[in-house]
Amino acid sequence: MAKIAQLAGVSRATLYGYFKNKDEIVEAVVGRHLMFINRNTKTPVSLTVEGYVTLRLNAQLLIGAQAPIFRDDLTQTMPALARRLEAAYQNFRQFTIEQLQLLKSAKIINDQFSPERLFRQDELFIPAVINDILTHHRPFIETEQLLTDYLTAELTGTVTDPQTILVALDKSKTFRHRIFDELAATYY
User: Fold this and answer.
1) Residue-range domain boundaries for the chain
2) Would you give the end-to-end CA distance of the chain in angstroms?
3) By C-alpha distance, which of 64, 59, 73, 61 is closest to 129?
C-alpha cells in the first residue's frame, strides 16, 4: 500500500481513506473496466465515419487496459473476478465485431475487411506497443506518434471514403488526448 500511495502521489493515510487494502483497489480497477464495457455495449454505434472512429478508439482503450500482467495476477489472486472481467471483455469484443459488421454493411468500411481481423489487429498491436514501452522505455512522444500513425493509417486504409477520416479524427481529439493521458499515467 505504501508503494501504491507513493505512485499515486498521496499519503498512505489518504489511500486508506479510500481503500482498506489492495484487494479493494483491484476490485475498483476491475469495476472501472466493467463500467466502461457496460457503457460501451448498450448503444449501437452511429453508422458514420465518426462512429467508426469512436468504436475503434474505445476498443483500443479497453485492449490497452487489459495488460497481461494484470490479467494473470487477477486470475491467480481473484479467479472469480477474473472470470467476470474476461466474460465482460468477450462480450465487448463480440459487440464491437457486430458493430464493425454493421459499419461494413453501411459501406463505411470497405468490403474486403473482416470485422474480426480488424479487432484482432488491435488486440495484437496495442499490447505490442505496451510491451515496447516496458521493455525499451520508449519516450512518451515516440509512443504517442506511433499510436497516432497506426490509428490514422488503419482507419484511412479501411474506410470507403478516406477523405472523411481526417475530419473524424479531428472531432475525436479530446477522446484521443484522454487515451494518451491514461497511457502516460499508467506507463510513464
Assistant:
1) 23-187
2) 20
3) 64
Residue 42 DSSP label: S
What would the pLDDT profile of 110-143 be if each residue is shown by its tens digit? 999 999 999 999 999 998 998 888 899 889 999 9
Compute the distance between CA of residue 77 and CA of residue 17 in angstroms, rounded to an integer: 23
**147 Cβ contact list (under 8 Å, min separation 6):** 60, 129, 180, 183
What does CATH list as the number for 23-187?
1.10.357
| Closest to 114 (Cα-Cα) out of 158, 57, 153, 152 | 158
User: Cα–Cα distance between 144 and 140 in angstroms, integer?
Assistant: 6
C-alpha dihedral sign at 72, 74, 76, 81: negative
Query: d(Cα 140, Cα 185) in Å, to the nearest integer?
Result: 11
CB 137 within 8 A of CB 97: no
Summarize pLDDT for 170-182 with one digit per residue, the tens.
888 888 888 888 8
- How far apart CA 68 and CA 77 sit, in angstroms, is 14
**pTM of the entire structure?**
0.86
